[in-house]
Amino acid sequence: MIRQLFSVVGAEERRLLRTVLALQIAGSVVQAVAFVLLVPSLRNLLGDDPDSAWPWVWALGAVCALQAVLYFLGAKKGFEAGASLSRDLHHRIGHHVSQLPLGWFGPRRTGELSALTTSTVMSIMRVPGYLIRPLVNGLLTPAVVVVLMYAFDWRMALAATLTVPVIVLVYRWSTGLTVKADDLRHRTMTEAAGRVIEYAEMQPVLRSFARSGRVVSRPLDAALSAQRDASRQVMVAGVPGLAAFTLVVQAAFTTILVYGTYLALGGSLAVPELMALLVLAARFVEPMTEAANLGSALRQARASLGRVQELLALPPLREPAEPAAAPRTSEIEFDRVSFAYDSRKVLSDVSFAVPERTMTALIGPSGSGKTTVTRLIARFWDVDSGTVRVGGTDVRDLTTEDLMSRISVVFQDVYLFEGTIEENIRVGRPDATDAEVRDAAVKARVDEIVHRLPDGWEAQVGEGGAALSGGERQRISIARAILKDAPVVLLDEATASLDPENEQAVQDALSALTADRTLLVIAHRLQTVMAADQILVLDDGGIAQRGTHAELIREPGRYADFWQERDRARGWRLAAPAAG
């Protein structure tokens, strides 16, 4: 576990941990010496000349005082190291996560990251302050006690030594009993964390259907029940091991006691010395029992360290060793691109080009790869084969900063950070002036929202933008993209679910965003499709058709079918119920 801990922390934390370890090791050795000094102290006190015990008693007092100082310093440094460890792990996890491919952030990652940065880190930060001391004491103090016991009676020392392999074997067996149960408990805790977050986020939907009670919270109830059952399994699996370890430790002490009594009855060991050595034997088994009682916490800490190691071992998005120069143009090109999510093939040998300052519309059935195309351009993932180019340069040869500086992304799912409207717009370009932020807001018609709210530009949007409507969140998202002023715009046009006022406002904002830029749009509106310079119809992992609206509408195929369905749906009307 200590080796694991050193592998996931920085240089400063390693220095603190070394200090904690040194203090705890010194404290354990001094504690063992104090235990051993009990032997001559008691032997003389119970012998023929009690006054001869005073030098040993004074030595014992001095060693105990030194051990108290070391304990205080070790505890102080341990808590200091725990706090530093928590801060460092949060920074390291956050920094590493920010370098992972954006496609890694799937739906299940929220619960996983939430559990990792809370309970997992909390479990690890307890190691220096709470777990290192009993762990070191449980291993080192008995070892020193046995070694020094040889100085007084080699037979009793040998008896203690022979019990060690049995104790170690039983300890390993007992810890192995709960490994699977601990892993199951972690998985259920992660699932429960995700369900709690989901339940909180979906309160507006649940309440709108009067379903915020137990009926619709079944997934959450099931996750919490699974977590409870897994925790019960850990306890059930751990009890036999803990009982067996406690039994074997007590058996070891009993063995030493019986053997010492046998020697005393045989006359080869004085009774006062036997009593002193039995006190020492008790100190031999006590630290091991204390360490065993913390076995669950130790296993949890090891498992937590393993999960952090797994996360930090994930390969970050590869940055080029020698980055290419920033592209001077903004055309987009797919050259025989193939890509799969795990084993599910999404794109196969796809090639197309989006000329600079033109608009290309992507249409196709759900799952045809429209969103995947935009994500590969933004390098959420790297392609399995083929090449994606922006401005004639492979996106893998550009640094993430260079690539993303040339791309604005407006997707259907808009997320706003908790803060003010102005702060959320400024995310697009943090160094922008107030005038530039206001200008982008006006172009996206966010000023209308600002004027309507009592706090104006300082109005809080709520977590995820919950205080605003979907159309208002879209306008702020577009204002960010306008402020960024990137030459390439990737757009998931999402106006179908908006009311007429917001739809018009968002369309006006999109017009301001896409003017004189290279635009790739996942199109939903007929007007957008008709206005495109090029239409790509995706189906079955490839491009089924391509061309302009005028060209494709005359050809039988997917596009003509799509157009007919949309045109027919546009004429739908709600009929009044029949009288009577």
Can you characterise this structure?
This protein has helices at 2-8, 11-45, 54-97, 109-149, 154-177, 179-201, 203-208, 218-265, 271-293, 295-313, 370-377, 400-405, 421-426, 434-443, 447-452, 470-484, 500-514, 526-531, 549-552, 558-570, and strands at 332-341, 344-354, 359-363, 385-390, 393-394, 407-410, 488-492, 518-522, 534-539, 542-547. The protein is α/β, with parallel strands linked by helices and 580 residues long. A hairpin with a 2-residue loop joins strand 4 (385-390) and strand 5. Helix 14 crosses helix 16 (470-484). It is elongated, with a radius of gyration of 35 Å.
- What is the residue-mean pLDDT, rounded to a whole number? 79
Main sheet strand line-up = 6-7-8-3-9-10
User: In the CATH hierarchy, what is the architecture of the largest domain at level 2?
Assistant: Up-down Bundle
Please indicate the percent range of residues in DSSP E strands (runs of 2 or more).
5-15%
- What would you call the structural class? alpha/beta
Total domain modules: 2
Q: How many individual helices?
A: 20
Rg value: 35 Å
State the CATH superfamily name of the largest domain. ABC transporter type 1, transmembrane domain
**What order do the helices and strands follow?**
HHHHHHHHHHEEEHEEHEHHHHEHEHEEHH
Distance between the ends? 78 Å
Query: What is CATH's topology name of the largest domain?
Result: ABC transporter transmembrane region fold
CATH class of the largest domain: Mainly Alpha
Q: How many strand units?
A: 10
Q: Segments where pLDDT lies below 50 for 5+ residues?
A: none
Query: What level of helicity do the residues show?
Result: 55-70%
Tell me, briefly, the overall form: elongated
